[in-house]
Write a structure and sequence with these properties.
By secondary structure, the chain is an alpha+beta fold. It has two domains: 2-96, no CATH class; 103-165, Alpha-Beta Plaits (2-Layer Sandwich), CATH 3.30.70. It is built from six helices and nine strands, in the order ααββααβββαββαββ. A hairpin with a 5-residue loop joins β3 (87-91) and β4 (97-100). The two termini are 33 Å apart. The relative contact order is 0.16. Residues 1-29 form the signal peptide. Keywords: Signal.
Length: 172
């Protein structure tokens, strides 16, 4: 009996892999970006013209809206609000497609000073003084580099991060 369960598990894994590969192939054939998949070669070629955005240890290239249809947003039934507040990006090293929520994480002991430095430039600023962290949310991915550069000059010992999600979050 254990052998039969092992074979069933193996078949289920094989079928799941086959379906994931087929769906990624369809997405590439239709020119759609699929979160968590490797970007199609033509999209990567278009993005190489623009410089990569590097914040902390993350280096990505934003996908201009309207360049290609985003399959993940269609599949998830993404709302207009969530689409405006996020940007498809392609990771520079391996061309993996992810989604940035247009947030910048700053870690610095004086969270009030960081919050004050970006006041008026960001859509929202959420300080968490108990963990020395400020999350800065901007309306457009293009603003992240400018705000990051200004904060890095003003607070040279601060650490920065650019959160990018490479897989869908499933609601229960």
């Amino acid at each position: 009996m254990p052998m039969r369960n092992w074979n069933l598990t193996r078949v289920v894994h094989w079928v799941a892999t086959l379906l994931m590969t087929a769906s990624a192939g369809v997405a590439m054939a239709t020119g759609a970006l699929l979160q968590g998949a490797v970007a199609p070669a033509d999209v990567v070629q278009q993005l190489r013209a623009a410089p990569a955005v590097t914040i902390g240890g993350t280096s990505v290239r934003p996908v201009p809206s309207g360049t290609v249809r985003a399959a993940a947003a269609d599949r998830a039934g993404g709302s207009a609000q969530s689409e405006r507040d996020s940007t498809f990006v392609v990771r520079d090293g391996d061309n993996l497609v992810g989604v940035s929520t247009n947030d910048l994480i700053a870690v610095y002991p004086d969270t009030a000073a960081v919050s004050q430095a970006v006041a008026g430039q960001a859509k929202s600023v959420n300080p968490y003084p108990q963990i020395n962290t400020v999350i800065v949310h901007v309306g457009s991915f293009d603003q992240l580099s400018t705000i990051h550069a200004a904060l890095a000059r003003k607070f040279p010992t601060a650490k920065f991060g650019l959160p990018v999600r490479y897989s869908d979050i499933k609601k229960k």
